Amino acid sequence: MPELPEMENYKNLLNQKIQGKTISNVIVTREKTINTNVELFKQCVMNKRVIKVSRRAKHLIFELDSGMNLLLHLMLGGWMYYGNEQDQPDRTKQVTLSFGTEQLFFIGLRLGFLHLLNGQQLQDEFKELGPEPLEPNFTYETFLELVQKRKGMLKTTLVNQSFIAGIGNCYSDEICFQAQLKPTKKFNELTDQQVRALFDAMGTIFHSGIQQGGYMDSPFTKDDQLTGKYQTLVYDREGQPCPRCNGTIKLEHISSRKTFFCPNCQQ
Fold it and tell me: What positions does the domain Formamidopyrimidine-DNA glycosylase catalytic occupy (predicted)?
């Protein structure tokens, strides 16, 4: 499932391609993907200009000049492609937005959605989300306040969207590895030094993930040389050598979630 770095990468690429452009046509091939009837959706989206694309947690928000927004969550298996009739992927598209001769294809949204929401509805969607870890006001002091209220395991807490927004299965493991902490360790067992290491690890992993286009390997355009270049450190690398100590990466299931770590150098 796409997480913060993947969605931040999409946000940046989308703003390069469609910011300021007008949606000239809308095709909906799966009505369950949207939250209104198809005709109303088209009426509210066609001929509207995309002011910008922003991100909140694992969501993207397409801000339209009408004051309405398209809220996207890719969920498991969802992705996007920007191109034309000639280079489009040979996959079923749930929604297609046209910008003249170019099109934005939403693919694999069997669990994901593209909802039309006004400003208040958008805020209601986000009211349970925790802080954004890349915002300037997310300081070490802010993190300390959050940590003091927690006693659960690192893995289960990091993926909790009401704790910190945007972290999922992959990057929770990557952050724990970077901080040299075992995912099963509990927050109330951390030393001050370990709390600091965890905070610093989030910044390191997220910036690395974004700079390398995340780990999803489906290109956004035919010329996309960035998306999917992030090489995970431990996630999905069971049985492979640890890149830090050459130990063997292990897989465990924590609360039904696959969790990858090095038992040798993560304490």
Answer: 2-106
